[in-house]
């Protein structure tokens, strides 16, 4: 079981073949004081949510002001998040409650990217779906026969959408793995993160229950969020829609997790900025972690 960022980090190191391939050319990074320091070379800023803009239910001190400063300079700003528990309406509301002013077309989340693919590649006639999400957020599609972990029929669902680790636990996981071993079925992962930082401790995200599945079950897992390419393709099409073509080197991915934000951003050719003070690495040795992961950001800062 993954109970800390240290555990999550070790887990990432143990599954390199499940991560995007990326050859780092550099072995150093530049430490900066704040995100506005790179505004001359960057046009588009992609902010991760948890660990960069907020921790749990609290906005990070000064983050709202920094995002507003970039906007005032004419910079383009998006949130690129693996959050999948809430739908887009809920996400916009969440960031508004924190004091950020993001419209829905400025938030790119892995749940939406996954749902687009799911709806494009499947149909309600293919059978029922088991949706792993807390009750208040249930009913994620219009036409599918949805079943939830509380229902006896959940275990016989023909496909699974794993949107949230909130409410899931080791006992349910063991039962699920057994059911999948008896009959493997497609697993659509809304949030590929292993953990997310909370004010105290961490939350277990769908990635911690799916990226770690043994083969052959892992071959049934479909991931769309960071660090995997689909969410970043969606980012590029949003940028093209809003501003036309932009060179990848003028785009910066800013995140707190080496194996999702930094790895995924670097694999796309974006500049990368690692935030160390409040997220995944807040209690870890940053330099040591970078060297162990062999994932080098372009820039490093404590807080945006
Ligand atoms: Mg994060």
TrEMBL record:
GO terms for cellular component: cytoplasm. One of its GO terms (molecular function) is phosphatase activity. Keywords: Hydrolase. It holds the Pfam family Hydrolase_6. Transmembrane segments: none annotated. SUPFAM superfamilies: HAD-like. The keyword Lyase does not apply. It comes from the Bacteria. InterPro entries: HAD-like_sf, HAD-SF_hydro_IIA, HAD_sf. This is HAD superfamily hydrolase (TIGR01459 family). It comes from Celerinatantimonas diazotrophica.
């Amino acid at each position: 079981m993954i109970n800390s960022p240290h555990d999550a980090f070790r887990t990432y190191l143990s599954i390199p073949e499940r991560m995007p391939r990326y050859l780092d050319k550099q072995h150093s990074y530049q430490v900066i004081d704040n995100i506005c320091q790179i505004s001359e070379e960057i046009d588009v800023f992609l902010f991760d949510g948890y660990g960069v803009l907020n921790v749990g239910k609290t906005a990070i001190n000064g983050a709202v002001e920094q995002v507003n400063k970039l906007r005032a300079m004419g910079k383009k700003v998006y949130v690129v998040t693996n959050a999948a528990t809430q739908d887009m309406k809920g996400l916009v509301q969440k960031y508004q409650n924190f004091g950020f002013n993001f419209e829905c077309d400025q938030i790119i989340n892995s749940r939406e990217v996954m749902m687009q693919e799911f709806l494009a590649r499947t149909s309600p006639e293919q059978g029922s779906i088991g949706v792993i999400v807390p009750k208040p957020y249930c009913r994620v599609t219009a036409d599918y026969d949805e079943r939830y972990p509380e229902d006896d029929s959940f275990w016989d669902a023909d496909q699974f959408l794993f949107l949230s680790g909130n409410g899931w636990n080791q006992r349910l996981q063991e039962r699920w793995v057994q059911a999948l071993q008896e009959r493997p079925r497609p697993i659509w992962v809304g949030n590929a993160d292993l953990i997310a930082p909370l004010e105290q401790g961490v939350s277990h995200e769908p990635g911690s229950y799916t990226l770690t599945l043994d083969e052959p079950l892992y071959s049934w897992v479909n991931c769309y969020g960071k660090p995997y390419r689909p969410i970043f393709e969606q980012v590029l099409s949003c940028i093209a829609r809003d501003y036309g073509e932009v060179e990848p080197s003028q785009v910066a991915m800013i995140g707190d997790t080496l194996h999702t934000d930094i790895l995924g951003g670097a694999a796309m050719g974006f500049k990368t900025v690692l935030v160390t003070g409040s997220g995944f690495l807040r209690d870890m040795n940053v330099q040591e972690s970078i060297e162990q992961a062999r994932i080098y950001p372009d820039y490093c800062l404590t807080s945006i």
